[in-house]
Design goal:
Elements lengths: L2 E2 L6 E9 L10 E5 L4 H11 L7 E7 L5 E3 L2 H5 L5 E9 L6 E5 L1
Parallel strand pairs: 2-6, 4-7
Antiparallel strand pairs: 1-2, 2-3, 4-5, 6-7
């Protein structure tokens, strides 16, 4: 399902995301609207919404069935449920300053 975003007539998929940050607990979800339904757009929307440097992100993972981690790709983004809610955390990698966005 798509929703028209105002008078522009652009159709966009939407979902709600909460950034789980130990230093600043919050319970307010942010709406994320995706027009192209790509991994790249999702990453940049998350980074811009939550003020994260996109150059510090090396990937996005999503919790799947039985707690497995699924690497997010364009195909995964296209199959996300409209109006879905996610909580995400930043998971540090072994490389200094780089993180993975984990959606759950």
């Amino acid at each position: 399902a798509t929703q028209s975003s105002g008078s522009s007539g652009i159709n966009a998929e939407y979902g709600y995301v909460l950034f789980e940050d130990c230093g600043a607990p919050t319970s307010v979800y942010q709406a994320i609207y995706l027009e192209t339904l790509t991994y790249r757009e999702l990453m940049y929307k998350l980074c811009s919404t939550f003020h994260i440097d996109p150059n510090s992100i090396v990937g996005i993972q999503k919790s799947g069935p039985s707690g497995i981690n699924i690497a997010v790709t364009d195909d995964v983004v296209r199959h996300l449920v409209n109006d879905a809610c996610f909580v995400f955390t930043l998971v540090n990698t072994d490389t200094a300053g780089l993180s993975i966005i984990h959606l759950k």
